[in-house]
Amino acid sequence: MAVLLVLAVFEKQISGSWGFADRAPVIDASSLGRSMLALLLAALFILPFLRNAPARAVPALSAAQQRPAWASLALAVGFLVVFLASPELFSALAREDQSVEWSSAVALLLGSGLLLWSSMRFLRSRGGVRGFSAPLCSAGALLLAVCLFVVGMEEVSWMQRVFEIQTPTVLIEENMQKELNFHNLFTNGFELLYYGGSFVFLMLLPFLKEVAPVPAVLRAVAPLIPGRAVLAVSAPIASFNYDMWHLLPIQMVLILSLVIVIRAAMTAPGRGEMALFAVAALLLVLSQVLLIAFGDRLVRLWDPTEYKELFIGLGFACYGGEVAFRAARGAVFAPRRAQA
Questions:
Q1: Which residues does residue 337 pair with via DSSP β-bridges, in sequence order?
Q2: Rounded distance between C-alpha atoms, residue 243 and residue 302, angstroms
């Protein structure tokens, strides 16, 4: 989050504004220079990790773990087909109270429920014997469950339209969409934090888990660190960019995600898993190219972000399932101790 804030301040210094306003991508010298800067910053961050030998052996994903990831990629391809065939339908599905928004909320609430169950299960486990702290894992899972619950309810404006709740006057004056939620008080700023934070949690952490020693402070909550299965399901969150493409963090997320999934393909223990991550890498590139090339057909500039939020929800639902599985069986990877 600190990195995102620094980048936002940096953008304000070089452009004279915060740059959060929705706008269509343009291809000119300035935008190309911005993309080159994003590439440079992403390279400076990730290259030191790529030079290091893997911190631990990469466990193979089972067929059961790969199926949700293939389904996630197939869903992303399906949405791209809908966009190319009918931008009107693409927009209709992404409207308030329609299937994409409700699916995002349900996925987040499912992840919240699974983490809540995991929190209670950790309290009954003997985690100390297995190398992790059961109380800390329980508290962490509970905190994450609350966060996902809040985000899920924000997604559907706390079911305002379901129960016909009037928006308070104070929110009507400040809320961009006049809804009973708080993220629309500063929509694009909150979106940037949400998208960036989701990338860090769902994609960057699984990558770092494989390439870097786990600090002692994190070994106590090892069952809460997402694994490669979550990374595979979450890959599409880096795509579906259009109205915020001009922001440095958004471009950096795509570049870093592409490197992460390519590395995952190169280090995959089996051919099926290698194909999975290779397809994910291809999808990241193809989806972004298609959206920029044909984005002028969009009914609303921000429609693609609604689909991005759906895949974030699916990623957290998968994460909740992964944590619940670990909590149920009491299994946790054995991380290598950090070097002094």
A1: 214
A2: 6
Distances (CA, A) of 303 to 18, 159, 242, 294, 307: 22, 21, 9, 13, 7
3-state secondary structure of 246: coil
Q: How far apart (Å, rounded) are the C-alpha atoms in residues 288 and 284?
A: 6
**Rounded distance between C-alpha atoms, residue 271 and residue 273, angstroms:** 5
CA distance 334 to 321: 20
Give dist(CA 288, CA 10) in Å, integer. Answer: 24
pLDDT digits (tens, 9 = 90+) for 81-136: 999 999 999 999 999 889 999 999 999 999 999 999 999 999 887 655 467 888 89
Residue whose tokens read 């773990």: 65
Q: Give 115's strand partners.
A: none
* β-bridge mates for residue 214, sequence order: 337
pTM, 2 dp: 0.87
Euclidean distance between CA atoms 71 and 314, whole angstroms: 11
What's the chain's Rg over C-alpha atoms?
20
